[in-house]
Design goal:
- The structure is a single chain.
- The chain is mainly alpha-helical.
- Helices cover 61% and strands 4% of the residues.
- The chain is built from 5 helices and 2 strands.
- The protein has a two-stranded antiparallel ribbon.
- Helix 1 packs antiparallel against helix 2, helix 1 crosses helix 3 and helix 1 packs across helix 5.
- The radius of gyration is 13 Å and the shape is globular.
């Protein structure tokens, strides 16, 4: 996959976790969780691609993607202010025990609500 491809996959995974956390409707959240699970499966297939990636930079890009104006109508939870640094360590993302549902909850808890 290469580092660029892995970086895109990590960004997609993080963006989908944020989208799942922002959705107020369970069905919409479940769809984003499924998308996140697919990205996670891709990462697990090529875990060495994580080496050297800058997680906070990918997090910033993921948050921008997740907060795109076309998704705002579906994002019904309280207003979130997501942290500048990623709530996950890079090695956590490739770990066998990484759980999508727990990750979505961690994103919710890491956000300052307004």
């Amino acid at each position: 996959m290469g580092q660029d491809g892995t970086g895109r996959t990590v960004r997609t995974l993080l963006a989908n976790l944020v989208k799942a956390a922002l959705m107020s409707e369970d069905r919409a959240s479940a769809l984003w969780r499924e998308e996140a699970a697919q990205a996670l499966a891709s990462l697990r297939a090529e875990p060495t691609g994580l080496l050297g990636l800058k997680i906070d930079g990918l997090w910033s890009l993921a948050v921008q993607e997740a907060e795109a104006p076309d998704l705002r109508a579906e994002e019904g939870r309280v207003s979130f202010t997501l942290p500048a640094s990623c709530p996950f360590a890079l090695d956590e993302l490739g770990a066998p025990g990484f759980d999508i549902d727990e990750a979505v909850e961690r994103v919710r808890k890491s956000a300052a609500t307004g």
